[in-house]
Amino acid sequence: MSGDSGRKQETAGPERHRGGVTLRRGAVSTSTADQRLLDSRSGADWKTKDAWRVLRILSEFVEGFETLADVPPAVSVFGSARSKPGSREYELARRLGGALAGAGYAVITGGGPGAMGAANQGTSEAGGLSIGLGIELPFEQGLNEWVDLGIDFRYFFARKTMFVKYAKAFVVLPGGFGTMDELFEALTLVQTGKVTRFPVVLMGTWYWQGLIEWLGTTMAADGKIGLEDLDLMYLTDDVDDAVRHIVAADEARASDGSRAGRRTPMV
Fold first, then answer.
1. Which residue ranges in the chain fall short of pLDDT 70?
2. SS3 string of 228-247?
3. Nearest by Cα to 74 from 172, 198, 167, 150
4. Domain 63-251 falls under CATH 3.40.50.450
5. Residue 37: its pLDDT value, please?
6. Where are the domains of the chain?
7. Which of 74, 99, 221, 225 could covalently link to 229 via disulfide, CB atoms 3.0 to 4.6 Å apart?
8. Which residue spans within the chain are E strands per DSSP?
9. How far is residue 65's CA from residue 214's CA, in Å, rounded to a whole number?
10. Mind giving me the DSSP string for 147-173?
11. Are 128 and 105 contacting, i.e. CB atoms less than 8 angstroms apart?
12. What is the number of other CB atoms lying within 10 angstroms of the CB of residue 4?
């Protein structure tokens, strides 16, 4: 039985998921939907193709909104897909997932392996809802086995909206370009007031301390950001401390909303 299974796996060849479609072997394209959308105009048919893509983009937003609308309060956790089991950030992500689940939060990750998979694993093991928002990439990753609720996206910008819209906070573990992208997008949204009382927690002082120092000695010192902007990030290695920070911000936001509801309307 296991031999037959192994042979099937070998003959299956490369596989890619494109929304609800599965592609294998010769049907696998060498480009992604994002690449085809963002590459420079080529040929005379870009006008019609880009116009029709709007419907596909709309469908991703609709599917994301409908799927995630009823999830409990959640925290988005970011980190490298390359984090190895047993590494400091991997174990930190796993403990973080469990602690967030214990505090009543669902956990949203990019659905991949590494730190994302560790956070999903910790959440699932603690009995919480483990969510993965995957993305079509030139190299197929697929959703990790610990995801309870998963959505595969074609477009990064649709996926990013879901990370923010359905999360109470971001926790950012050591990672690469993708992790940095999510970190600075979150900071920009908070800095510009697009989201309010939205904690951005950095975990892994050994990894982030140099960046924090550079932001202060170079970016803030040169007037590109304010010194107060450095307070938008909360740096810690303590899982319980991170969760307390998120819960406190969540409670403060709820309190602000309650007071706003009690205000006497102006006539």
1. 1-48, 139-141, 257-267
2. HHHHHEEEECCHHHHHHHHH
3. 167
4. yes
5. 59
6. 63-251
7. 225
8. 15-18, 21-24, 74-78, 106-109, 130-135, 149-153, 169-172, 200-203, 233-236
9. 38
10. -SEEEEES-HHHHHHHHHHT-SEEEE-
11. yes
12. 8
Tokens for 221, please give them.
Answer: 């010192």
Q: Which pair of structure tokens corresponds to residue 26?
A: 């010769």
pLDDT in tens, 195-222: 887 999 999 999 999 999 999 999 999 9
**Structure-token match 């923010």, residue found:** 164
Q: How far apart are CA 159 and CA 133, in angstroms?
A: 7
Are 78 and 208 spatial neighbours (Cβ–Cβ below 8 Å)? no
Query: Considering only CA atoms, which of 162, 167, 129, 191 is closest in space to residue 249?
Result: 167
Phi, psi values for residue 43, rounded to 5°: 80, 180
Tokens of 261: 């509801």
- Residue whose tokens read 């990753």: 141
Cα(34)–Cα(238) distance, integer angstroms: 37
Q: How far apart are CA 45 and CA 103, in angstroms?
A: 52
Query: In this structure, are residues 189 and 181 in contact, taking their beta carbons and an 8 Å threshold?
Result: no
Which pair of structure tokens corresponds to residue 232? 């938008």
Instruction: State how far the Cα of 78 lies from the Cα of 169, in Å rounded to an integer.
Output: 11
**Contacts of residue 161, Cβ cutoff 8 Å, sequence gap at least 6:** 61, 64
- For the beta carbon of residue 184, count every other beta carbon within 10 angstroms: 13
- Residue appearing with tokens 């926790």: 171
Q: Model confidence over 103-143: pLDDT tens digits?
A: 999 999 999 999 999 999 999 999 999 999 999 877 656 89
Extract the tokens encoding 24: 């294998």
